[in-house]
Amino acid sequence: MKRLVILGGGESGVGTALLGMKKGYDVFVSDKGKIKEKYKEVLIHNEIDWEERQHTEAKIIDADVVMKSPGIPDKVAIVQLLIMNGVSVISEIEFASKFTDANIIGITGSNGKTTTTMLVHHILKQADLNVGMAGNIGDSFAKQIVTHDYENIILELSSYQLDGIVDFKPNIAVITNITPDHLDRYDYKFENYIASKFRITLNQTKEDYLIYDADDDVIVDYLKQNPIESTLIPFSLKTELEYGTHYTNNNIIVNIDNSKLIMPTTNLALEGKHNIKNAMAASTVAQLLKIRKNTIRESLENFQGAEHRLENVLRINKVQYINDSKATNVNATYFALESMDAPTVWIVGGEDKGNNYNELYQFVNKNVKAIICLGVDNKKLFESFGNMVDIMVETQYMSEAVKIAYKITEAGDNVLLSPACASFDLFENYEDRGRQFKDCVRNL
Question: How far apart are CA 139 and CA 39, in angstroms?
Answer without folding.
Answer: 12
